[in-house]
From TrEMBL:
<protein>
    <recommendedName>
        <fullName>Probable enoyl-CoA hydratase, mitochondrial</fullName>
        <ecNumber>4.2.1.17</ecNumber>
    </recommendedName>
</protein>
<dbReference type="InterPro" id="IPR001753">
    <property type="entry name" value="Enoyl-CoA_hydra/iso"/>
</dbReference>
<dbReference type="GO" id="GO:0004300">
    <property type="term" value="F:enoyl-CoA hydratase activity"/>
</dbReference>
<dbReference type="InterPro" id="IPR029045">
    <property type="entry name" value="ClpP/crotonase-like_dom_sf"/>
</dbReference>
<dbReference type="InterPro" id="IPR014748">
    <property type="entry name" value="Enoyl-CoA_hydra_C"/>
</dbReference>
<dbReference type="GO" id="GO:0006635">
    <property type="term" value="P:fatty acid beta-oxidation"/>
</dbReference>
<keyword id="KW-0443">Lipid metabolism</keyword>
<dbReference type="Pfam" id="PF00378">
    <property type="entry name" value="ECH_1"/>
</dbReference>
<comment type="similarity">
    <text>Belongs to the enoyl-CoA hydratase/isomerase family.</text>
</comment>
<dbReference type="GO" id="GO:0005739">
    <property type="term" value="C:mitochondrion"/>
</dbReference>
<keyword id="KW-0276">Fatty acid metabolism</keyword>
<dbReference type="InterPro" id="IPR018376">
    <property type="entry name" value="Enoyl-CoA_hyd/isom_CS"/>
</dbReference>
<keyword id="KW-0456">Lyase</keyword>
Length: 261
């Protein structure tokens, strides 16, 4: 059940089929404290299960998407505590969302902020966005995918540069390097992300989920296994009403009416 309000995020449904989750801890530049993460997981899990929702957009403020995990909350923790509680494991719930997700990044996406954005399926950025993995400056390393998802997005040399120097990259370079799909003027970013989300939400949800699952599986598989999985999932979609409808609509030169079945 969606709560009527959350302490650390603002939830809205700006277009049919689209959920917008805005990180909202302005005084801490949306640092991802445990409570914020709980709110984000709670709301995104709700929308992931909702039949009405076809795409989830996660955004922050103009100044910061998120400046990372909450350093003040972590600073005095001991090994036994972070190990036995498996700190950050719960972030996997965001990566496990089956509904398509878009990260709309304005301002800083640093450390866990960059990692949260990389957990989303598509990243779009405002032209003043800045990305970085500055954990090295704190005597640690990225802990939520920065060493794993970043290298897959931009390649070894660029990922190493970011993780070892802590240098930030701007939106233009993030797009050139393949971290970001598109860059928009900062003030248009959220509208553009919602527009993209609306387009995704207008498709067959079952086909979108299948596409997402199959693209993500490529991270874990050889080319041959991946191609086989892709073909088998493609075959399985012939058991859906949406495949019959989609292909009939094409032949009859009309718009498809998806049942998401
Ligand atoms: N955790 C806790 N608080 C944070 C924070 C963070 N990650 N980032 C910013 N804040 C707080 C600041 O402490 C400050 O609070 P006070 O007003 O109480 O002092 C407030 O947000 C505003 O920040 P600044 O005054 O520093 O703002 P600025 O504009 O001068 O600088 C910044 C902006 C460059 C983003 C700077 O805040 C910064 O470097 N933040 C930390 C970035 C970072 O190191 N992130 C990695 C965190 S570790 C991690 O994420 C591990 C992981 O892999 C999951």
């Amino acid at each position: 059940e969606l709560k009527t309000s959350y302490d650390n995020i603002i939830v809205s449904t700006p277009a049919p089929g689209v959920a917008l989750l805005q990180l909202n801890r302005p005084k801490a530049l949306n640092a991802l404290c445990d409570a914020l993460l709980d709110d984000l997981i709670h709301a995104s899990t709700h929308f992931d299960k909702s039949e009405e929702c076809g795409c989830i957009v996660i955004t922050g403020s103009d100044k910061a998407f998120a400046a990372g995990a909450d350093i003040k909350e972590m600073a005095t923790r001991e090994f036994a505590e972070v190990y036995s509680q498996n700190m950050f494991k719960q972030w996997g719930s965001i990566a496990a969302i089956e509904t398509p997700t878009i990260a709309a990044v304005n301002g800083f996406a640093l450390g866990g902020g960059c990692e949260l954005a990389m957990m989303c399926d598509i990243m779009v950025a405002g032209d003043k966005a800045k990305f970085g993995q500055p954990e090295i400056n704190l005597g640690v390393i990225p802990g939520c995918g920065g060493t794993q998802r970043l290298i897959r997005a931009v390649g070894k040399s660029k990922a190493m540069e970011m993780c070892l120097t802590g240098n930030m990259i701007d939106a233009e370079r993030a797009e050139r390097d393949g971290l970001v799909a598109r860059v928009y003027p900062a003030e248009e970013l959220v509208d553009q992300a919602v527009k993209m989300a609306s387009k995704i939400a207008s498709k067959s949800q079952i086909a979108c989920k299948a596409a997402k699952e199959t693209v993500n599986a490529s991270y874990e598989m050889s080319m041959e296994e991946g191609l086989r999985l892709e073909r088998r999932i493609f075959h399985s979609l012939f058991a859906t009403k949406d495949q019959k409808e989609g292909m009939a609509a094409f032949v009859e030169k009309r718009d498809a009416k998806w049942e998401h079945k």
